[in-house]
Every structure is written in C-alpha cells, then in structure tokens.
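Researcher: Here's the sequence for the chain we discussed earlier.
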Amino acid sequence: MSKRIVVVGGGAAGMMAAICAAEQGASVTLLEPNERLGKKLNITGKGRCNVTNNADLETLLANTPRNGKFLYSAFSRFDGRDAMAFFERLGVPLKTERGNRVFPVSDRAFDISAALERRLKALKVTLVRDRALSLDIVDGMVGGVAGERRSYPAEAVILATGGVSYPATGSTGEGHRMAAEAGHTVTPLRGSLVPLQGVLEKGGPCVRLQGLSLRNIGLTVFENNKKIYTDFGELLFTHFGVSGPLVLSASAHMRHFDKKTYRLEIDLKPALDEQTLDRRLLSDFEKHANSDFCNALDDLLPQKLIPVIVAGSGIPSHRKVHEITREQRRDLLHLLKHFSVEISAPCPVSDAIVTSGGVKVAEINPTTMESKLVKGLYFAGELIDVDAYTGGFNLQIAWATGRTAGITAAREEL
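Model: Thanks. This is the structure I predict for it:
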C-alpha cells in the first residue's frame, strides 16, 4: 500500500510538495479552501510571476538574509537553474531578464499555476476543497488532519499554508497556529517586501507628494546614517509614506526598526552626474532668467514636486532666477541628487508581499524539512522562518523546500 500524505495548502510550496511526493509513488491529498490553486502565485510579479532567479547556490544564499544557512541543503539539491528546468519540462518556456529574474515567456503567471495543476492531475493527486483545522498527533507522531468537512488520515502531513501577508489570498496564519499547537515556536511575524510609512509631519514630503509616481530614480537606504542598500527604479508617494517596486525591494534590507533609524535618499536625476546636472540647471536658469524661481523648474521636474523642491532648497520662491547665487544653485543641486525621506516604520504585515518570521528553523531538520518535535510532520514555504530579497528568491524558497518536503515525506531519505 502506498504511503498516504496530506499536503495542507495549494500555493507554490504546497503544489510542489504534492507533485514531488506523488512522483515518489505516494498517495497524496491536497487540501486547499480557495476555489483556485496558486491564488497568490497568480498575482506575483504584477501577474507576470517572477518564477525564480537564474542563480547558483551561493547567489541564492546571499539573497536570503533570514536564516539562509538553513536552506543550504534544499538549495544544493534544487537551485534556480533546476527550477527553470523543472518548469520547462512542464511545458512553460522561460526567459531571463535584468537581475537574472526569470519569467514565463508569455508574461502570464497563470501559465505557471496551470502547468502545476496539469502535473497534479497527471499524477492523480486528490484535490479537496476543505480547510484544515487541526493536526491529529498521537504519541509524538502525526496521524492525519482534521478538516471542516471531515478527517484525512495520513502517515505524513506537509504544512504549506503560507505566511500572513495578502490575507485575501488565503494566507491567514492557520498553519502557524497548527504548528504552535504541535509544540513549535513561531517567531514574530512581520512584513518583508512591504510599503514604508514616512514621518508624516505637517507639510512633510510624503503628505505633499501623495499620488506622485517617480520613474527612473535612484534610491539609497541609510540605517543609522550608514548606507546599506542602493537601487534604481520606480517609487510612489502615498497617503502613508512610500511604495512601489523600488521601496518593496529596499524594505527587505530594513529589519531593525526597534533599534535603528532609517532614511531614504532619492536621486531624482540619476542619469546625470553633478557636473552635467549643474550645466542643465544653468541652461534652464538662462532660459528663465527673468522668471520667479518657482516657475523655472517646469522643464526639469514633475509639477507636483516643484513646490517641495523649492521649499527644500531654501531659495525664496519668488526670487528672480538671475538673482540666485552659485551657492544657492549648489544647494539646489545637492537636493536634487539627495532628496531625503525619513521612514518611521514598515506597513502592517497584511500589506506585505512576503512574511518574515514563522516556524523556528532550529526545530526543523534542514535536510528533510521534517519537524524535530513531531514525527511525520513536514514544513514548506513561507510558513518557515526564512525570507529573501526580491528577484524570484522567495518563490525559489517555496520550490526548494516544497520539493524537499515532498520527496522526504514520501520516502525516508533523499
């Protein structure tokens, strides 16, 4: 008789675990309360799905700041290139873009989830629309799962319920609750890859710039005035602070709000070095020599940004441009290259793309993903206390841990 395995959660890690367990000959039941599998997977990468990163073991570990060493074994057996080969075998052509980010050639996340669903069907994995309520554990050994509709006996259970970010996709923290009830430690849950709250003092830049989107800007993050991260891309000012792809990436590096202060510095004109930008300012100032300063920046900046830059420059808004001194122009130049935004906190974890925190890695066997506390209980994906930077690395964690859990749950060793 084949080994019975229940996988709880039909996201990226859960589908991978179910496929790999079934490929080993196990009889697999996949529990998922959502009407669709891969609901969160389908909205990743703005619906394009950044499947993985075209990277080797060392690169994957370097981009996993939260307990990366725990993933050494899983990544050693299944790195970004292995993930690419896996999906191409499932019939999804892939492409590699900037930063070695990997996407479907079609730019459709649905193609990834559909390929996984086809494989599940081909392997005769039983998909049940039910919500797991508790684990059946007797004498330190798992015996199955109790669902809302009925119980599911099993020789092994894989928890792959995700984190607590994007709760509308089904990531409600139920897996953490079940892990805790089984005796596991769940480390504090917070957002990673999350929008940031600005210091919203009256008249501050976030308040005044709400709704402004800036493209092709440079961003540098300072932690206690020490530069810790820099990147280039798009940023959006919001009613609470800042968001956009650039901010989400930066937030993963900002992990100590309880002990440290953070500041963003925006280079509004990263394509121009200071000398080139100064020549551009001189040219614009000649053109608007008899205009008020507040009317001289229309060619250089978005309209909404001009009053904020004028106020920050210290130059009176109605001073004639030809009266502006070299020192004042130098201060303006510095402001354009180093526009500062103070950050007070990350947004709530429910607004995050990825959850940081989860089931404590010291209580999980890194070579098998099996619980050290409960025999036959395995973990995969975002439920575990691991997370990475943007670029496909978090999905790679889901694929690698899901694969390891699926294979080892179906047989005693890899």
